[in-house]
Amino acid sequence: MTIHVSPDAHPTLVLNADYRPLSYYPLSLWSWQDAIKAVFMDRVNIVSEYDFTVRSPSFEMRLPSVVSLKTYIRPARNPAFTRFNVFLRDRFECQYCGTSDDLTFDHLLPRSKGGQTEWENVLAACSPCNLRKGSKRCDEVGMFPRQHPYRPTVQDLHNNGRLFPPNYLHDSWMDFLYWDAELEP
User: In 21-164, where does DSSP find H-type helix?
Assistant: First the structure.
């Protein structure tokens, strides 16, 4: 196939077999090449297509804009403890001052005082607040988080992910997403 299209052009929204996105943040997207490969391997159903066609000497196909998996993938029950997921749980805001700049991890009970690196003890904090708190407890410095850290559910992270829609939302995706159409660029 001879195509002059950027690999990032025409992404495909990937839905589970129940027609829900595999993830919201980041949004479950495949490149058009991966989508076509999945179609040929009979792993997905095409739900919607772009008005863009790829061609070879013996083949022509409209690019899929939305596909659904033929086999249901059971979502994880408990989200992984990662820096990204902590920030997502905390809505990418410092839990002390509310800024979204220069975020770091902060241990509510400092590690030097026996605090563990776990959901219930770690929160998002900007560097200045984290440095100000240092290795002290919140009550020692008079800094208290807006929200106490907690173990989120997958649903909590999905709900928070919906607060941060991607820069690009194709019209054909809107029936499967929970963002308002006016958020679309």
Answer: 32-40, 83-89, 127-133, 138-141, 154-161
